[in-house]
Amino acid sequence: MSQQQSKASSKRERFVYEDDEVIEKPFNWAQLGRLFHYMKPYRKQLLPIIITMMILGTATRLAIPALIILAIDEAIWPKEGSPSMTLLYTYAAIMLALYIIQWGANTLRIRYTNIIGQRIIYDLRHDLFSHIQKLSFRFFDKRPAGSVLVRVTNDINALQDLFTNGVVNLMMDCVQLVGIVVILLLWNFQLGAAVMITVPLMFIVSTSLRKRIRFAWQDVRTKQSRINAHLNESIQGIKVTQAYVQEKNNIHYFDHMNKVNMKAWHKASALNQTFGPVIEITSAIGTLILFWYGSHLIQTSVITVGVLVGFANYIGNFWDPINRLGQMYSQLLIAMASSERIFEFIDEKPSVPELQEPKRLKEIEGHVKFENIVFEYEAGRPALKNINLEAQAGQSIALVGHTGSGKSTIINLLCRFYDPVQGRVLIDGQDIRDVTLESLRSQVSIVLQDTFIFSGSIRDNIRYGRLDATDEEVELAAQAVNAHEFIKLLPDGYDTQVEERGNVLSMGERQLLSFARALLADPRVLILDEATASIDTETELKIQEALKTLLFGRTSFIIAHRLSTIRHADKIVVLDHGVVMEEGNHDELIRHKGIYHGLIEAQYRFLSA
Ligand SMILES: Nc1ncnc2c1ncn2[C@@H]1O[C@H](COP(=O)(O)OP(=O)(O)OP(=O)(O)O)[C@@H](O)[C@H]1O
């Protein structure tokens, strides 16, 4: 990397979404409770099976070393009498049965925890996705798409492990640990206490090590999340990148992030590897104490050989749960950070709320009125200042004005993507805040400049306007707006698959598709954000004809960029810095010789230049 480039890379801190940086906060019990609430639907059917299997599995595991002690002390090496092979076989048979029960219980437990875990993840993902679908534009204004994506994917995945095996393992390990401690202390208090002397030491060392390991992995995840964000942006903006020949710069920046991620991973992995030896050394010290002190106790006839062997067996089962509990704690903290971010989204209230009991907007005529509207996206920066505007049913209103003058904002308010700070928007005399969003938006359609084409067939995309439309209705709509011709020429006609955003279609074709979609929806009020890109004359003519069909008999609001297309509008509204400056039809405004006249002249000069 050249010096200049590396300088540029280190200076920039892009793709850092503060709310996605993994945060470690004090343990939040309320949050954990909320998370566990998702288990509630399964507590009657699946949970009892899992708990029974868990108890069975742990009990059999704890019983086996006890049987070994009995087998040695009573069958192989009895204090009194001779060894008994019959007794030995009996103990062996019981042990075999216990192993089989343990295997069966574990298999069932794993199967049911997986089922429960997956259902919980499904429910959580469903809740999150359906909530995000309902959130208002304001929410998306504040967040890059990548950051929303990360929550539905990465953060939910982080909870997957917790629910599929984490919780049950945690409970099993706790029960197993307590069981072993109780059995050892009851069987022989002295020896039990002696072998557990290393536990506090191990606890202190492992806690501090775990913390460092956790932070190191958090660092890796943050770096990966930045890579994801960069990747998302790079793919979305690939055309601009290539057009401005920024590929090299982009690759260098990506390499830089990739390298930083690799270093973070090496660091975390190296730290992780120190944990195993710590556990092994501590358990080796524990075993050493067991045999040293145990043989002393055998010599003094305090314990039998069987007890020593049994203790060794229990101790073998002791360190694993301790190790896992440490890991589990880290996993729990990561899951808490993820759940915090998930619930933050789920708790987000739509900024255009519906009334408690909203009415349905009855079939409208299409009379639209903006009454003393004031609106601001950000406090203190008004985008619209005291707008009063009226469209009679069936009238066409053209909105013109310089870029940033507030044209799109007016239509955003009419669709109720945002609510005004002051004033109201009325349709047929009804405040649109009092009616359901569904009944409003099903009668007010919008055709955006940048038409979104979803992945699927052409037919599916037109049908998006009204999902219950028949194939025939879809084709009739396409014919009415002159889209049929080009669709028929596509490889599979109406069944041709188009990629997301319709990259394979031209701008004009996309416009015609969106007209067909709007015509199918058959709204009373139609909003049209006219495409700015220049289209060839033939397509332009087709679009103009299609527009006539589309607008016929409807109240329409047209954001016009090519002023030639709005000459025949019933009313032209000229906006400037969020204020209505002029209002009238084309002839009136030309005679007035104001802003509109100036815009027409400027466009004429531009076109003839
Ligand atoms: N989501 C947003 N958040 C903050 N400010 C916004 C947002 N959208 C628009 N604005 C601001 O509001 C003002 C009006 O914007 P608007 O999009 O309505 O203009 P416009 O007339 O439609 O412009 P154009 O012709 O360029 O599309 C502008 O100053 C713009 O920067």
Automatic annotation (TrEMBL):
**Listed transmembrane segments:** 46-72, 84-101, 167-187, 193-209, 275-294, 300-319
Which Pfam families does the UniProt entry name for this protein? ABC_membrane (PF00664), ABC_tran (PF00005)
Coiled-coil spans in chain = none
What topology in the membrane does the UniProt record assign? Multi-pass membrane protein
- Claim: Isomerase is one of the keywords in the record: no
Keywords recorded for this protein, A-Z: ATP-binding, Membrane, Nucleotide-binding, Transmembrane, Transmembrane helix, Transport
PROSITE patterns tied to this protein: ABC_TM1F, ABC_TRANSPORTER_2
Q: Where is the protein situated, by its record's location annotation?
A: Cell membrane
Sequence ranges assigned to domain ABC transmembrane type-1 in this UniProt record: 49-332
The record's GO molecular-function terms, alphabetically, read: ABC-type oligopeptide transporter activity; ATP binding; ATP hydrolysis activity
Q: Which InterPro entries match?
A: AAA+_ATPase, ABC1_TM_dom, ABC1_TM_sf, ABC_transporter-like_ATP-bd, P-loop_NTPase, Type_1_exporter
Q: Does the keyword ATP-binding apply?
A: yes
| Gene Ontology CC annotation, any one | plasma membrane
Q: Which SMART domains match?
A: AAA
Ranges for domain ABC transporter: 368-602
Which PANTHER family does this UniProt record tie to the protein? Answer: ATP-BINDING CASSETTE SUB-FAMILY B MEMBER 10, MITOCHONDRIAL, ATP-DEPENDENT PERMEASE MDL1, MITOCHONDRIAL
Q: What is this protein called?
A: ABC transporter ATP-binding protein
Organism lineage string: Bacteria, Bacillati, Bacillota, Bacilli, Bacillales
